[in-house]
Here is the input.
Amino acid sequence: MTSTGGHGGSHESGCMRAIRTWTQRALPGRRNRTSIKGEREAGNRQAPPSGTTPTTVATTTTTQSKAISAPFNVTMTIPQNQKETETRAVTVFCASSKGTDIAFVNAAKSLGKALADAGRPLVYGGGSHGLMGTVSGAALAAGGDVTGVVPYAMVVAGGERGQVGGANANANASADRATYVALEEQGREKVVVNSMHERKAEMAKRSCAFIGLPGGYGTFEEVLEVVCWSQIGIHRKPVLVLNVHGYWNPLRELVRNGIKSGFILEKNEQLLRFVEGPKDHAEHENFDWGKAAVEALDTWENIASSHFYNWHLRKDGKAEEDTLGAT
Here is the structure.
């Protein structure tokens, strides 16, 4: 496995430091995942409202919250009645469709399992179909913690829907039924927000890194937005994409064209790291993409950069903690 981009600086990864010290620290009030999950299921789970689909379940965060420190100097917002702890969670951006190749589905399964095995909670868009359902289902099956962040409009509509139609519509619908997972029945936390913009901000608050699986316009936009946030100093969190069957190659070429044309600094190519599989794409279907992704996170190094803006400033003149985790 090789990976390119995001690996040329001298600053040690905050996630890497967190991993190395995780088992050495005695965090106040620390509990293992089993007990946390049991407490959540016993005390926080809510019965779904009548008439809702299996996607419209679970716990929601309160509006009263406070900020805490986390790896990468991440500031995570949590309800005031929960204990403070560092976050090792990873946000995964992916599609509500499964795509046309089984390698995409297998990569999602591999990633969900690997994050759970590494003790890294999964944060994602909350869908139960396609690659969303696959990655979250795999994480839950492996004993991981999963948080889905969903705009209210999607909750009311019964969940996020795949955007693929045409000649492949029936095949994709059948495949999505096969990958559907009733997450609320397995103790997933659901966070309901008001808009797509709030969804992305909430996902960013709750994680110390981002991974993009193959996906459509929504996935493209999510990946590029968090890269932009790195560029302008809102955060310095790792951003990876899993280049299954070279899916993300056109994005790499687009970035390089931006550099060539004078719109992107050459050093900023490293803000996005492409996790590569075997040279023989025939091996991508069974490649352990999850292991490769976790290894890429563990070896991430931030590039040296100077930030142009102070994101703590507010127009009323008061400086506030930046909840998206600028460093």
Q: What stands out?
A: The CA atoms of residues 122 and 212 lie 13 Å apart.
